[in-house]
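Appendix B. Chain record.
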Amino acid sequence: MASNTAATQTTSTEDAAPSPMPNKGPMVCVFCGASPGTSPAHLEAARSLARAFHKHNVSLVYGGGTKGLMGEVARTLTELSGSSAVHGIIPEALLGLERENTDGKIDIQSYGRTTVVSSMHSRKELMAKEVQEGGTGSGFVALSGGYGTLEELMEMITWNQLGLHGKGVLVFNVEGYYDGLLQWVRTAVRAGFVSPGNAGILVEALDAEEVVKELREYKVSEDRFQLDWSEK
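Structure tokens predicted for this chain:
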């Protein structure tokens, strides 16, 4: 593991987008919990995802936390691929809860680059922007998590359905954690609230290699709304 003696942070006071990462390889946004969960399988899934990202030259953008699954996936990928492969984006209000260093400084050697923004909305907007600027195989992946993880995941599904992006949206389903959500999608289709075609916006993966494969081979639903979001 690289030395953690050098600490730095990148702060965005105007919520302006940071300079993009130099490569245009796959960029994957991972949503996940700031807790480790009760089963060791959740932390192992985070580590295995980071190993798969390293193997396939995938960069990570995530919510900037150092604890739980967030910290594990960021720390593992930084160890393997270096700090340039990881970008955390975190609202200033969450720094005290998420960061190990009480002075607010962020160890780039352990967790990669960090951008501090003023709001949750800015955080999601910048994470989505990085994914949209990424190359083939970019997308959004949810590891296990709580309310925040589910909210972020559902927003990216909705943005896909509305045509705001065409990137893959996946759940890494560890020990059946997302079985209930996948069943809800099927129920929504039967009840007439989600079209059969749009049910496929959300894809399930059961291991880390499948995550990378499904993102690379992701097909955009033909049932998405054909809306023009360009500024007039």
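Further analysis of this model is presented in Appendix C.
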